[in-house]
Design brief:
CATH topology of the largest domain: Rossmann fold
Strand content: 15-25%
Radius of gyration: 22 Å
Number of strands: 12
CATH architecture of the largest domain: 3-Layer(aba) Sandwich
Structural class: alpha/beta
Strand order of the largest sheet: 9-8-7-10-11-12
CATH class of the largest domain: Alpha Beta
Distance between the termini: 23 Å
Shape: globular
Order of helices and strands: HEHEHHHEHEHEHEEHEHEEHHEHEHHH
Helix content: 40-55%
Number of helices: 16
Length: 399
């Protein structure tokens, strides 16, 4: 959405961004984002942080729990839509109010909590709208009774919101295909790519150092493939560093360090704090290999094509990625710039990492191949990325 706001502003549209604010580290990142975009577009924030917006936090929490109880008793498919959307999104009324605060010719947005807001706002204003399916929302989490209920709410909202959307974008070709199979719609795949850096990344490698591995996400925790990476380094018997950036879940880094001590004694685990999105490519510059180690469950992890892999490529990193439906086409396109392995196949990952560790010329070739692919196709300014979004908006505004 940040790239979309910038792109639409750059071609002459007046853009207003509406978003929620509830996490301290993300709030700090927002400040930096806005500092770099003074007067570029407007921003309306719905704050329900428990420390800085206590009243909204409490009121929305009471409403959220109450509507969830009612929706659970009635069942998501029989529950009235006003209850469904409030049981799904904690601050649905506040987001809708913010969206409607000023006139608009088009609404466009995404993430799980915003789909219903966008559709409702556009219908009230009688204007077109587009939805961004960044993830496969009805299979985002591991299965449990609570998760099944939330996924049922998701499907109910998707059925309603997607039915009258002027256009739909999706975060990967695999996600787009999955939504086509369920709803018969034709989402436009727009990948979470980024702008080419103003200067080429350094592609050199240190022939004497161990392999420097890098991974980032909002949350550092189990079930993201990091344990497999640690074990693979141990099986390969190579020295190296595993750098991870994000917010660690309590106790997780200690557990990962213990695993490294037991299975990969030559591996050093180095955590880093979250950083603003505009800095992510530059922060990759000191590493050799970017890790895109998605799993097959939940289904969304298998279908997604995350911003990690595109960040790595633009920073000139070789890519180690799992062979998932979402990542498979990209890995094939990267050629020797990527090493692909089946999720959980530690021995194959170990073999690939060892090849790069033992042959730094091969590693340098992989880094260069990833950068060439980013220049050729996998960047935001490409016609199939930024251009596809601008074309969709132009067609919607003509209706």
């Amino acid at each position: 959405m940040l790239k979309a706001a910038d792109a639409l502003t750059d071609v002459g549209h007046a853009v207003r961004v509406v978003s929620a604010q509830f996490t301290p580290w993300a709030t700090q990142a927002d400040v930096e984002v806005l500092r770099r975009r003074v007067k570029k577009w407007q921003w309306t924030v719905v704050n329900y942080d428990r420390r800085t917006a206590r009243r909204v936090y409490v009121a929305s929490g009471v409403r959220f729990r109450a509507t969830r109880r009612v929706a659970s008793m009635m069942g998501p498919m029989r529950c009235p839509m006003p209850l469904v959307v409030r049981a799904y999104s904690r601050v649905y009324p506040e987001l809708l109010h913010a969206a409607l605060a000023e006139p608009a010719d088009l609404f466009y947005g995404g993430t799980t909590g915003a789909l219903a807001v966008i559709a409702a706002a556009a219908r009230r204003r009688n204007v077109p709208y587009g939805l961004d399916l960044e993830d496969f929302h009805s299979a985002e989490h591991d299965d449990s009774q609570t998760v099944q209920f939330v996924h049922s709410l998701t499907r109910r909202i998707e059925q309603d919101a997607l039915s009258t959307a002027q256009f739909v974008t999706a975060g990967s070709t695999a996600i787009a295909r999955a939504y086509t199979e369920i709803y018969g719609i034709r989402p436009i795949p727009i990948n979470n790519t980024f702008s080419l850096p103003t200067t080429p990344p350094p592609l050199t490698v240190d022939p004497k150092s161990g392999l420097r591995l890098y991974w980032f996400s909002q949350t550092i925790g189990p079930g993201r493939g990091l344990e497999d990476v640690v074990r693979a380094v141990g099986v390969a018997g190579i020295p190296g560093e595993l750098h991870v950036r994000g917010n660690p879940l309590p106790g997780y880094l200690s557990d990962l360090r213990s695993l490294a001590t037991q299975t990969a004694p030559q591996l050093q685990l180095i955590p880093h704090h979250p950083a603003p999105p505009d800095e992510m490519i530059a922060l990759c510059g000191d590493y050799d290999v970017g890790l895109a180690v998605e799993r097959l469950k939940p289904l969304n992890r298998a279908l997604c094509l995350t911003n990690k892999v595109f960040t790595y490529m633009l920073a000139g990193l070789a890519v180690a990625c799992t062979d998932t439906p979402g990542q498979r086409p990209l890995a094939h396109d990267l050629g020797e710039g990527a090493y692909s392995y089946a999720p959980g196949d530690i021995a194959t990952l170990a073999a690939g990492l060892k090849r790069w560790a033992d042959d730094k010329t091969l590693l340098a070739r992989a880094k260069a191949a990833a950068w060439r692919a980013a220049q050729r196709r996998w960047h935001w300014e490409h016609a199939q990325e930024r251009g596809a979004l601008l074309d969709a908006v132009k067609r919607a505004l003509r209706v």
